[in-house]
Amino acid sequence: MSAEQKKDSIVHDDLLDHNYDGIQEYDNPTPSWWHMIFLGTMLFSVFYIVVMHLSPITRTRYEVLAQHQEAALEKQFGELRRIPLGEEKIRKALENEQWVAMGATIFEERCVLCHAEGGRGIQGLGLNLTDDVYKNIETAGDILNVLTNGIGTAMPSQRANLDDNEMALVAAYVVSLRNTNHPQGIPPEGKPIPPFFSDTPTEQPASGG
Questions:
Q1: Between 3.40.50.1110, 3.20.20.70, 1.10.760.10, 1.10.1760.20, what CATH number should domain 84-192 receive?
Q2: Rounded CA gap, 187 and 108, in Å?
Q3: What is the pTM of this model?
């Protein structure tokens, strides 16, 4: 057999019988190791679905997210977040300078448009929070009430913007502003009230005169 005949024989032996528009296909099946890998991935996918999505012992991604959020809140607020919203929560926030500073940051983001930087007030818009005279507020709890419910159209409710911890931090910051008497503060409006917490050193002493 000549070399040309041998070549033709090999070619014909390697070609499949079917013919599509003059195109023939070589008989080259995928190797067995490829089939093993494919079968392995199929089996693994079944195992993954059962364990990661159907098993009651496996947490969903939402549960994992909730766990991380819980850990972040615990790290950020600690004991404060376990105290119900009220004066005791404000008192606790006042004990930590970092929490008061966080309240100041939230105040600068949410409240300066009406109360100006540092709580000095804007005439006809927001009261001066750095003196010893208040409207609609007689206790620290009233600060939370104003934040939660607002005051008509003059002061919108912040319930949609702040959670309980953030409200307590803002209230603590407002308490800390009392009697700091900002040099650019607007004239006082309202009436003097007793100290919010007489035993809390963060609240400034009343000024004379």
A1: 1.10.760.10
A2: 21
A3: 0.66
